[in-house]
Amino acid sequence: NAGVTQTPKFHILKTGQSMTLQCAQDMNHGYMSWYRQDPGMGLRLIYYSAAAGTTDKEVPNGYNVSRLNTEDFPLRLVSAAPSQTSVYLCASSPPPWGKITYEQYFGPGTRLTVT
Amino acid sequence: AQKITQTQPGMFVQEKEAVTLDCTYDTSDQSYGLFWYKQPSSGEMIFLIYQGSYDEQNATEGRYSLNFQKARKSANLVISASQLGDSAMYFCAMTGRGGKLIFGQGTELSVKP
Predict the structure, then answer these.
(1) Among A42, A56, A87, whose Cβ lies nearest the Cβ of B105?
(2) Rg of chain A over all Cα atoms, to the nearest angstrom
(3) Cβ contact (<8 Å) for B102 and A45?
(4) Residue of B nearest to A31 (CA)
(5) Please, which pLDDT band fits residue B97 given cuts at 50, 70 and 90?
(6) Contact between residue B99 and residue A96 where contact means Cβ atoms under 8 Å apart
(7) What is the sign, positive or negative, of the torsion defined by CA atoms of B71, B50, B44, A104?
(8) pLDDT for the residue A103
């Protein structure tokens, strides 16, 4: 199993440009999430999907996602702004079973700089 | 709203000593999960330990234990016999509604030789 994979690892984007960060998992997990990580801020949830075909937005505009199948959860920056400079982490997990919640498996991250 | 608070931005511990990293949480849910993750300088997120809200016993995983005090809404991580490789950022997190994971701000632990 490759686990959770993210591409690219690094990218520099100009203000106003758009790009898609790729995330894929091969563990057949229903839950997938995108976080951004900034120094001193911990991880902030951006988007969340409980299953293919469903998504839930956690933050204001600037991002978009799709969940067409179980494996892939791409994150699109519509018109990049310097405030979106961050490390983006994708994660997946099985759904809860009874009272048990499972840990999330994280990808290696994408470090994005918007100039 | 659910919230996780880690009040220690940075901590130092001597090698081979024990250290406690603090975490408090706020939720109105009866069922929730609490997690600790480690993030070394390489950036990967490593799952350490999990505690369910209905678990009566504190979770333990090797040198890691979670001191769960439900009435005080605290879920402190205890690392026994610290090693140099324990130097990293540590994040406390809890599951919100629908399985969403909410993170604290993190504590940077430095282990001194």
Answers:
(1) A42
(2) 14
(3) yes
(4) B99
(5) low
(6) yes
(7) negative
(8) 87
B7 residue type, one letter: T
> How many Å apart are CA A11 and CA A80, to the nearest integer?
12
User: Average model confidence (pLDDT) for chain B?
Assistant: 94
From residue B108, give the alpha-carbon distance in Å to each of A88, B44, B47, B94, B112.
20, 15, 16, 19, 13
- Could you check whether the bond before residue A8 is cis, i.e. omega within 30 degrees of 0? yes
Length of chain B: 113
Of A31, A40, A106, the CB nearest to B45: A106
**Residue with more model confidence, A41 or B89:** B89
Please choose, from the candidates B90, B74, B82, B86, the residue with its C-alpha nearest in 3D space to the C-alpha of residue B34: B74
What does the alpha-carbon distance between residue A102 and residue B99 come to, in Å, rounded to a whole number? 9
Reported as a single tens digit per residue, the pLDDT across A50-63 is 888 888 887 768 99
What number of residues does chain A have? 115
* B11 interface with A at CB cutoff 8 Å: no
Query: What residues of chain B, 30 to 49, have a C-beta less than 8 Å from chain A?
Result: 31-33, 35, 43-45, 47
Task: For chain A, say whether B70 makes contact (Cβ under 8 Å).
Answer: no
